[in-house]
From TrEMBL:
Catalytic activity: L-seryl-[protein] + ATP = O-phospho-L-seryl-[protein] + ADP + H(+); L-threonyl-[protein] + ATP = O-phospho-L-threonyl-[protein] + ADP + H(+)
EC number: 2.7.11.1
Record lineage: Eukaryota, Viridiplantae, Streptophyta, Embryophyta, Tracheophyta
Enzyme class: transferase
The Protein kinase domain, residue ranges: 133-423
Protein's name in the database: non-specific serine/threonine protein kinase
GO molecular function: ATP binding; protein kinase activity; protein serine/threonine kinase activity
GO cellular component: plasma membrane
Biased composition (Low complexity): 83-94
Amino acid sequence: MKKTPPPNLHQSSQSRQNANLQFVGTNNDAKRHSSKTLRSLKYAAKKCAAVFSLFLYGKRKSASYVVGNDGRKNTSKVRGVVSSSTDLSSESTTKNSSKWKFSYSYASSITASGQLGIGNFSFEEIYKSTAKFSPANEIGQGGFGTVYKGKLNDGSIVAVKRAKKDVIHNHLHEFKNEIYTLSQIEHRNLVRLYGYLEHGDEKIIVVEYVGNGNLREHLNGIRGEGLEIGERLDIAIDVAHAVTYLHMYTDNPIIHRDIKASNILITENLKAKVADFGFARLSDDPNATHISTQVKGTAGYMDPEYLRTYQLTEKSDVYSFGVLLVEMVTGRHPIEPKRPVDERVTIRWAMKMLKQGDAVFAMDPRLRRNPASIKAVKQVLKLALQCVAPSKQSRPPMKNCAEVLWDIRKSFRDEANSDHPPLPSHHSANFPQREKNKFGIEDDDSYKFVSVPNHIRS
Ligand SMILES: Nc1ncnc2c1ncn2[C@@H]1O[C@H](COP(=O)(O)OP(=O)(O)OP(=O)(O)O)[C@@H](O)[C@H]1O
């Protein structure tokens, strides 16, 4: 049975957007009517899958790692085959179509309507919606494949994730995982699954289109006009709510395993939606202390304890979230190889600055500096420091992170409104034009609150 989320962990009841699509996990009424049957189907399917995986586990042997240097895209993925004691859909299934079908019907058996996820969802419609997978419609590339913007027959806009053909065998597991995980969840800060389809060797996932790029693009300054600290706090809270929901308010805890800035999609209203469930793992037993699993994630965001022990817990997401928080207030990538040696690993450098009392120097040069924002940055860094604690016991649960961030945002707003005139909104037509400084960074008067040495700002 679903646990009731707290008020701020709202479960969206947005209606279906397109009758031609086979929607998954969106109809709450249907969910209620069929929940009993679905629970039995889920239970039976899980048991079969576990037995099946154990059988397959005996065949797994090798280990391979590919580590990139900047924490981005598929080059930065760390992949390895280590062990899998509760693996419900092992990589070993990926080379066998009959095994895929097993997993496919497993995923289908838990859909809200109880129907298969392909229904009226035709390849032709998707093909047409993306103008024949035209490069002009391409909105992103990931380890899994290419993401396109699509316009369906009824005019609704969707994101179409098309698996790479040449790597389909290696990524079929991620494809199945993403479908299965997305089909179970519904939250306003998580990207929604609309449907999926198989067509020959094509594997396609159709998800909610989130139209304002990803968080990394905003931090890089290539989207919008730069996020102010209040907006960053709002986004961090959205992410914390989404992950808390995954950890605490689904049937079985879901560990995302790939929390990073490029997986945080931003809406036009600057709300965050967590995407990319390709690596997510479900715990079979809600009371289990950990899952022994293959090591997966993105370099720079991965929990070192998980890397050492292969024991995956919700606290590995908390660690990645800590890295993300540091990224959000410093603007830096988690790993920046071109920096001086002691600045290359951003969390280490930022924590050193915090401990020295120099947190202000770690602040993203794009952020306007005033006492309220400097205080908020320090508080966020303190929280991040707890999230990236070496041992998982010392890290706070994600729910606490959300609460702490909520308090930081509240006191930031109170202070910003009482001590200073309201900060100009860059959405306002009256917002003064910022000049670019010699570092190519937009400057404004608020920099003058604190003088930042050039070597820090470069
Ligand atoms: N639902 C969506 N709506 C809008 N844009 C999206 C959507 N999903 C993905 N994108 C864009 O496509 C990019 C690639 O997404 P994808 O999830 O395939 O890979 P990634 O997370 O960036 O990389 P990796 O797969 O290596 O982790 C995203 O960074 C984002 O900019």
